Amino acid sequence: MTRTCRRASHPRTRRTPLLIATGVVAGAVALGLAAAGTTMAALSATQTAPGATITAGSLGLTVNGSASAALGAYSVVPGTPQARAFTVTNTGTTAADLATTIAVSSTDPIKDNMRARVTAVADTGACVPNLSGAQGALHGYSSSGYATVAAGQSVVVCLELALHDATPIAQAGQSASFTATVTATQRDR
User: Fold this and answer.
1) Residue 157's CB: how many other CB atoms inside 10 A?
2) Does residue 182 lie in a domain region?
3) Does a structural domain hold residue 66?
4) What's the rounded Cα separation, in Å, for the pair 99 and 93?
5) Per the domain annotation, does 15 fall within a domain?
6) Structurally, how many domains does the chain consist of?
């Protein structure tokens, strides 16, 4: 009898532990890479500034030192304008641009021939007729941006009134009452 020896081949048994070990190592590497990619530290710090206060600025005006002032009577004839000065003071804490509007409350026809001009001047002595600045109808007159007044400072404003040269003689002796309103608008920084 001849004996044949068969050798049993067990490649699966040798490969299986190797494959399992390789799989475990690959899984551990993948898990380590995934964990390393998402690991981060977020640092933060906080500091408090106690006792802070915000105070709003203010804006206020006076005319000739009062809340309102009378400009007196003007006596104008065609070709002879009159000018009067008044002082506008900014009593607030911020610079302001000035604007003036005029409204006539009389109904006499002479109001349609009256003209006005508002100009900022260096002092009351510089307030004379025929200065530069836009002249317009007295009723509805509006002039803006003609002066800037700093906080706590004053500006002298000259108000000139005139009659058209072609004012009809029939309007002689008529008068027109008006109100001039000076408005301050905070200056943009």
Assistant:
1) 24
2) yes
3) yes
4) 18
5) no
6) 1
> CA 8 to CA 22: how far, in whole Å?
25
Residue 91 pLDDT more than 70? yes
Reported as a pLDDT band with limits 50, 70 and 90, residue 55 is confident
> Residue 34 has what pLDDT?
59
Q: Is residue 31 part of a domain?
A: no
Range of the domain at 161: 61-186
Residue 145 sits in a domain of what CATH number? 2.60.120
Cα torsion at 103, 104, 110, 116 (round to 10°)?
-30
Query: What does the DSSP assignment read for the chain?
Result: ------PPP-HHHHHHHHHHHHHHHHHHHHHHHHHHHH-----------TT---------EEETTBSS--------BTTB-EEEEEEEEE-SSS-EEEEEEEEE---SGGGGGEEEEEEEESSGGG--SS-SS-EEESTT-EEEEEEEE-TT-EEEEEEEEEE-TT--GGGTT----EEEEEEEEEPP-
Rounded to two decimals, the pTM is: 0.71
**What pLDDT shows up at residue 13?**
55
Tens-digit pLDDT profile for residues 141-185? 999 999 999 999 999 999 999 999 999 999 999 999 999 999 999
Of 85, 81, 100, which is closest to residue 162 (Cα–Cα)? 81
pLDDT of residue 49: 75
